[in-house]
Predict the structure.
Amino acid sequence: VPEGHTIHRIARQHHDVFAGRPVRVTSPQGRFADGAALLDGRVLEEVEALGKHLFYRFGHRILHVHLGLVGTFQLFHEPAPPPSAGTRLAMRANGAAAYLSGPMVCGLIDPGTEDEIRADLGPDPLAGGTREEFAAALGRKSMPAGAALLDQKVIAGVGNVYRAEALFLCGIHPNRPARTLTDAQVACLWQTIVAHMGEGARRGRIVTVEDAADDERLYVYRRGGLACRRCGAELRAWTLGGRTITACPDCQPA
DNA sequence: TCTTTATGGTGAG
DNA sequence: TCACCCTAAAGAT
């Protein structure tokens, strides 16, 4: 479930629960055994999110986590259930346990490496990024807007759901070259993403259709072939930027 | 007990 | 553009 809203939510939860105290760190799966041993018993000072990256600071050692497509964190009150065989990392303190499975990245880095990671990321709508930075990055891209929104150097934290929903909400066809967007369209995208990612982080899920049933809370994502919730036209789906995008031919004219 | 699917990203060709 | 990596849960058999 990992777009930027999920990552920021995890950072906040883990910071609140674990930061400022020594934590027990293990790797039930074993693939992070060496790193876990180095962190075990140390004080976790801070948890910070940027885009889809998580940084857990233990002095000069930093635990870097990226969930990728299938990575998940589960948070339990103790006594927590036993971890699954695939649990890469277990962190325990303060009567709580967090289990991490399936991450794309789970490793120790130094501050210099963190700086390199941060330098490769564009503005994060949930971490002080600005519309001006976003507009400047978009203006340099001739690629379709739908592809640019997935580029983490253009905007950090947006994934396949937010790109489809934001383009729909702003009435922009995904194939429109990024640098041809008007100032008003760029402003709409930024403001829409800021608002919805913030709301997503609070709710723990992405909702763009207000007051809708649980399975009707998105306008276009994964709804190819179905009727547009706004105008009834048949939604179209195709591949853009290596992932499936869905859009309304009438609400998002070419 | 299988196959499928997923809101991500990298590296080879 | 494609193959591939990571894991769990849901659906099919």
